[in-house]
Amino acid sequence: MIILLMLTNHSLKLPVKILKMKTVVSHNFNHQRALIRVDFNVPLDKQNFSVKDDTRIRGALKTIHKVLDDGGSVILMSHLGRPKGGPEDKYSLKHIVAVTSQLIGREVKFVTDCIGKDVEEVARNLQPGEVLLLENLRFHPEEEKGDEGFAKQLAGLGDIYVNDAFGTAHRAHASTTIVANFFPPDKKMFGFLMAAELENADKAILKPAKPFTAIIGGAKVSDKILIIEQLLDKADNIIIGGGMAYTFFKAMGGNIGNSLCEEDRLEHALQLLKKAEEKKVEILLPVDSVTADAFNNEANRGMCESMSITSGFMGLDIGPKAIEAFNKVILSSKTILWNGPMGVFEFSNFQEGTKAIALAVAEATSKGAYSLIGGGDSVSAINKFKLADKVSYVSTGGGAMLEYFEGKVLPGVAAIMNA
Predict the structure, then answer these.
(1) pTM of the full predicted structure?
(2) ∠ at Cα 287 (283, 293), nearest 5°?
(3) Distance (Å, whole) CA 271 – CA 138
(4) If we measure between CA atoms, which residue out of 135, 136, 192, 191 comes closest to residue 162?
(5) What does the pLDDT look like over 22-49, one tens digit per residue?
(6) Other CB atoms within 10 Å distance of the CB of residue 372
(7) Which of 1, 156, 255, 418 could cross-link 25 (Cys pair, CB 3.0–4.6 Å)?
(8) Is 230:11 a contact under the CB 8 Å cutoff?
């Protein structure tokens, strides 16, 4: 199947160009080795290294089964964590072999490296229906450097290159971008997950049903400036929560106590508010906050207006008035993008704001709204509250989704689209 995908400069009104996106649907993998870049960077238990959340592995299953059902073999490559300078046992992909085998429904072979003669021999002898998992790509510094020699060795392991790792598509690494150079146009393509990520992102970016509400949270304004600026040309409402909200309150002359604040972003925060007013985009900040006298779950709590937080206290969640106001906007929306929590939802005493927003997004979806959960902590929240199946789409790529919404070209996408 060929899917038409509009690649746009998101700050423009019209598409720059339309290209064909080739996916695995249109290819027969019979007796071919598919080298698949997956994102198996899953969280592991620090004590026994068991997989705590297998969402990313599950995300790749449809692509893997397509290859196997065609009579092909699969070579999986991924990174895990951020090893420094070489192999580290805690970052070995050997820890996910059992779970991956269970989810795929057949034994997954494992090799203790991702390049070299021994790896090449195992890959060469792989039989139709077999699955091989390579060791952590980042055990070699050449991976993150985008080294051509390293990429060429990886490319030599397979007959077809499939990129199904949206979570790393914003990195010009050897396995995500450079490796594609060693395959002809008809031998490189996107997996089901990558295609779904791009299609769902474009559904929110290009022609969102109105009203379009973006919910932006997290700790720092600096992390979200670009996406907020892009959304000012698309959204009707932008809800801002989390630690980043207090930089806005400080910029407006409020007392924020010990709340998180980026002093060097105060002027920028005011500029964003001014631009929103000029573009007639409503920015909603949490009128009240749940506060604490320390950054821990057992801290003494309080409740106050977000512009008047008592000295010695910090805002760690949005309050009931903010929840009511935000919910009203969310429930009247037809398109919803959510990126970032409303507070420190990891602490049970400060999770109510994020939970309430998650429930509101789910309710709006049940009434016909399109909802995209844009990666990162938002995904953790939607999973924690068991609402992943109540929203339209949950993205697997936090950083990649963010950069795509910011209007940046993703190297991992361009490497295949521009063939």
Answers:
(1) 0.85
(2) 125
(3) 40
(4) 191
(5) 999 999 999 999 999 999 999 899 899 9
(6) 27
(7) 1
(8) yes
- Residue at token pair 């991702």: 114
Structure-block tokens of residue 135: 């060791």
Phi and psi torsions of 256, nearest 5°: -115, 10
Cα–Cα dist 40/119, whole Å: 19
108 token code pair: 């997954």
| 8 A C-beta contact, residue 317 and residue 301 | no
Tokens of 398: 């936090």
pLDDT of 86-113, one tens digit each? 999 999 999 999 999 999 999 999 999 9
Q: Tell me, what's the pLDDT at 20?
A: 59
Residue with tokens 């409020």: 254
Residue type, position 329, single letter: V
Name which of 306, 318, 297, 356 is nearest 241 in CA terms. 318
Reduced 3-state DSSP string for the chain: CEEEEEECCCCCCCCCEEEEEEEHHHCCCCCCEEEEECCCCCCECCCCCCECCCHHHHHCHHHHHHHHHHCCEEEEECCCCCCCCCCCHHHCHHHHHHHHHHHHCCCEEECCCCCCHHHHHHHHCCCCCCEEECCCHHHCCHHHHCCHHHHHHHHCCCCEEEECCHHHCCCCCCCCCHHHHHCCHHHEEECHHHHHHHHHHHHHHCCCCCCEEEEECCCCHHHHHHHHHHHCCCCCEEEECCCCHHHHHHHCCCEECCCCCCHHHHHHHHHHHHHHHHCCCEEECCCEEEEECCCCCCCCEEEEECCEECCCCEEEEECHHHHHHHHHHHHCCCEEEEECCCCCCCCHHHCHHHHHHHHHHHHHHHCCCEEEECCCHHHHHHHHCCCHHHCCEECCCHHHHHHHHCCCCCHHHHHHHCC
Q: Per-residue pLDDT tens for 288-301?
A: 999 999 999 999 99
Residue 194 is encoded by which pair of tokens? 């990558």
**Residues taking part in catalysis:** 56, 220, 376, 399
Instruction: Render the burial of 67-96: b for 16+ CB within 10 Å, e for the rest.
Output: bbebebbbbbbbbbbebeeeeeeebbbebb
Distance CA 397, CA 406 (A): 14
226-260 confidence digits (pLDDT tens): 889 989 999 999 999 999 999 999 999 999 999 99
Query: Would you call the peptide bond into 185 cis, given omega within 30 degrees of 0 as the criterion?
Result: no
CA distances from 66 to 61, 70, 107, 299 (A): 8, 6, 17, 51
